[in-house]
Amino acid sequence: MKPAFTFRHMVIAALIVGLALLPLYVALTGDRFMLTLFTRIVILAMAAVSLNLILGYGGMMSFGHAAYLGLGGYTTAILSFEGVHSGFVQWPAALAVSALFGLAVGALSLRTRGVYFIMITLAFAQMAYYLASGMARYGGDDGLSLEARSTFAGLMNLSNKTTFYYVCLVLLFASILLVWRLTNSRFGMVLQGVRSNETRMSAIGYPAFRYKLTGFVIAGTLCGLAGALIANHTDFVSPSMMFWTRSGDLIVMVVLGGMGTLFGPVFGALALLFLEQFLPHLISFIVRPFNPASAAKAGEYWQLVLGPLLLIIVLFARGGIDGLLAMLSDKLGRKVRP
Amino acid sequence: MSEPMLHVENLAKRFGGIVATDNLSLDVAQGELHAIIGPNGAGKTTLIAQLSGQLRADSGRIRFAGDDVTALLPHKRSLLGLARSFQITSLFLDLSVLDNVALAVQAHAGHSFHFWRNARKDEALRAPARAALERAGLADRADWPAASLSHGEHRQLELAMALAGQPRMLLLDEPMAGLGPEESARMVTMLRALKSELTILLVEHDMEAVFALADRITVLVYGRVIASGAPDDIRANAKVREAYLGETDKAGADHV
Fold first, then answer.
1. Per-residue model confidence as pLDDT tens digits over A54-64
2. Which domain holds residue B244?
3. How far is CA B164 from CA A76, A211, B126, in A?
């Protein structure tokens, strides 16, 4: 039997506690930047968690998931621009718009498979991108600034960075709880059955399309909420948040963290954004002793290092970071109990 | 006599110029184990696919337990109690053995738009799934990943999944394919036990198994029934010996 509390569980527990106590660290050190960085990590982790529901558990390789970040964000920003500042209106609207978009995209794309599915989801996301670029009233290519963050009738003040961080964190944990319940429910079993062998699912009596579409819409809706958060975080939305490379980032987070695992996407988001943030500095730091003049310049080539690094992790740690942790747990577990 | 469990009337299916099923009629009585044999390319799997609904017949009628199922989709037939196992094992390899069967049970338990309760702890699904595993002789493998089972165990799992919906009739497409002698013998024992509870249509190349199990045998050649009867009649049938074995001497017939 598996030990009840493994090394992997310990890391996950540490992650939860660490995220919960981060504002304390910030208060003690005065390192406000960390709060900003981690708010971003938490929001994008939520987007990755939502993508993981369909990509990891449902086997649906959606290449347009960032569209929902944009839709949620733009819904919030546009309502704010038009004078509606209440989050009680903005956020449900963001969810509704994302759900409708998911329904439309899913209804068409889920009739196809493989590369066609990937291309259609990508095409719809690019449509959303160009639509946003074309909305002259709302800034077009330049994007749109939020006049004020969403208000919640005095219940909470999102302009307070610590409050906002905790709102995001609670919503991330709620998303993980939701995905956990969903994936273990009858619905989730069907989703995983479809991922594993769709032909067989149809043969034993499941109308697979309906279940896939439902999962697709839930994932999109959840990501729309992350979009509303990110608009509040940056006080700004622009078409670029829907660009296809953004969708790619979300996929990388899920794959890097561990597809079809509960906390994998959180690890993935954490790892990718940390690398994005600190790899340039690290490279400059390593290059400096050898060639001080070009150290700063070398840091600009951080993606040249990130690419192979991701490749190595994906190739050698099958199951991503979560898989790596599970492997370590296995080794440690064997050492402890002979 | 009551109506047969399965009644096939003038079924026909062609793929381009090839006649896969040629005006085929067949009755399977309730509680009978009816075997279909025939050389490669006789249209046995095509027949099973039409009976289960994966393939649509060009013409003809199929009645199951009194209902006309000719136009029904596979899962509708499965819900009526007509279950099939696959010749090529088609499982959910990355799920556990018990999950595989529980999914088959769940398919018969109404829609699956239940989003919150833990299905892996739902006895309404788990208990029948474990019972089906028991009947297929896989009870001790319940928690293994399906991918880790042997080939023979995969066939048993196929059988358990077919049994999970508590069908009235099983369509078994070569359940012994690729099995070793020991595994084959175990499968024969299992099918013999099932035979008393279910109607079974068995397509099989393993003649020893067929003659050990079948109440009646139908011989198919080029999509046409050339003989149908009790095992002893089929063994003695000259037409079968000629067409099926391509030889007419008495010695060859002994191996049929």
1. 999 999 999 99
2. 1-81+167-256
3. 49, 21, 10
Q: What CATH number corresponds to the domain at position B30? A: 3.40.50.300
Kindly give, in sequence order, each residue whose CB lies less than 8 Å from that of residue A108, ignoring residues fewer than 6 positions away: A120, A124
Contact B122, B130 (CB under 8 A): no
Distance CA(A115)–CA(A35), nearest Å, equals: 39
For the cut 70, the answer to whether the pLDDT of residue B254 exceeds it is: no
**Pair (B74, B195) in one structural domain:** yes
What's the helix, strand, coil split of chain B in %, to 5? 40, 25, 35
What DSSP element (H or E) covers B53?
A: none
Could you tell me if residue A2 is inside a domain?
no
- How far apart are the C-alpha atoms of B149 and B133, rounded to whole Å? 13
Q: Tell me the C-alpha distance between A225 and A46, whole Å.
A: 9
Q: Domain containing A225: what range?
A: 7-336
Q: What mean pLDDT do residues A221-230 have?
A: 98
Whether B91 and A185 lie within 8 Å, measured CB to CB: no
Are the Cβ atoms of A188 and B119 closer than 8 angstroms?
Answer: yes
Q: Which long-range contacts (CB under 8 A, 24 or more apart) does B188-194 make?
A: B188/B212, B188/B213, B190/B135, B190/B136, B190/B137, B190/B156, B190/B159, B191/B33, B193/B135, B194/B135, B194/B163, B194/B170
Residue B104 lies in a domain: yes
Interface A-B: count of C-beta contacts within 8 A: 90
Q: In what order do the strands lie in the sheet with B224-229?
A: B82-85, B169-173, B199-203, B33-37, B216-221, B224-229
Tokens of B66: 């009194």
**pLDDT greater than 90 at residue B168:** yes
**Per-residue pLDDT reduced to its tens digit, B41-52:** 888 989 999 999
* Closest chain B C-alpha to A261 CA, distance in angstroms: 13
Cβ atoms of A186 and B122 closer than 8 Å: yes
Answer yes or no: do B75 and A197 touch at CB < 8 A. Answer: no
**Residue A293's pLDDT is what?**
83
CB A227 within 8 A of CB A68: yes
